[in-house]
Amino acid sequence: MRRAVALAVPLLCLALAACGSRDTGVRAAVECAPFARALTGVALSGPAAGWWWQAAGRYDRGPRPETGSLLVFRPSRRLPDGHVAVVSRVLSRRRILVIQANWQHHHVTQDQPVIDVSEDGDWSLVRVWWPPAERMGASAYPTYGFIRPDHPAGHDRLAEAVPAAIESAQAGW
Predict the structure, then answer these.
(1) Between 136 and 7, the higher pLDDT residue
(2) Domain harbouring 11, CATH code
(3) 113 beta partners
C-alpha cells in the first residue's frame, strides 16, 4: 500500500503540472536560444549547447534550478545544437516547469513539465513534456545544468514577457 501511494503522488504532481501547461498559439519560426536570450536578458549567443561554456565567469552556473534560470541541454543525436529552456517554476527537487521555444517545432510553450531522471538527482539527465502526446516524452536528454541570469524574473514577469520575447527573437534581436 505504501509503495502504491509513493508511486501515485509523483504521478499526480505531473498530471496537475501538465494541466497548467499551455501552448501560446504562436507557430512562427522562433529558435530556443534567441527566445531565451530575449526572455531573460542573458548576453549569450550562438547555439544553445555553447551557452554553458560562454556563461563561465559571467553568470552563476550550477546543478540546482531556480525560477528564471536557464536549463542548458547538451548536444545529442536528437539535439545537435543542444537546447535551452527557461525555468518558470520549481515544483520540487526533481520537477520544474519551463518556458521554451521550438521544443515542439515552431511553437513557444509555457509551464511545460521537466523531470530530473539522473541517478544522482543532479539534473544531468531529464525528460521533457511532449505536447502532441500530452505526456512526458519517452527520451531522456543530457544537460549541463542551470545558468542564473544576473536578475532572474519570477513566474508572472516571465509569463508577461513572452509576447515581447517572441517578437524580439523573430526580429533577430
Answers:
(1) 136
(2) 3.90.1720.10
(3) 97
Q: What angle do CA 2, 5, 6 make, to 5 degrees?
A: 85
- Range(s) of the domain holding residue 37: 2-171
For the cut 80, the answer to whether the pLDDT of residue 40 exceeds it is yes
Share of the chain above pLDDT 90, in %: 78
Q: For the chain, how many structural domains are there in total? A: 1
Residues ≥6 apart with Cβ < 8 Å to 1: none
Q: What is the mean pLDDT of the chain?
A: 87
Statement: residue 144 has pLDDT above 50:
yes
Distances (CA, A) of 7 to 4, 13, 124: 5, 11, 22
Detail the DSSP E strand segments found in the chain. 22-23, 60-62, 70-73, 83-92, 95-101, 108-116, 125-130, 135-136, 141-148
